[in-house]
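User: I'm curious whether this sequence folds into something compact or stays loose and floppy. Could you predict its structure so I can see for myself?
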Amino acid sequence: MQTPAPETVSKVLDSENYSHSFYNFGDRQAGVGLVFCPNENKFYYNAYCVEAKILKELFSVEYEFLQDALATVNSEFGQWELKSHEKTKEGCNTCVAKPK
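Assistant: Here's the prediction. I'll summarize afterward.
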């Protein structure tokens, strides 16, 4: 009997998770976002790193192509922990403050 392989979870930013995932190290956050250039009337991919508590930009490079931005972020920050922006449901259903 063959055991099913565990579900593979991406450990790097890729085209499937870049919009809802980021790298985290201490108070620093790195990822890829979209920025709009009104002069050229087009979007660019922004590879970034910020100091999250004080909202200070530490690194920012704009690319025309997503794969270039992903390659830069994965190369520079890929050893950091990959996290998701999506919130997980926390708490329990037995809270006494819950309305009756």
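Summary: DSSP finds one helix and five strands in the chain. Residues 47 and 69 are 5 Å apart (CA to CA).
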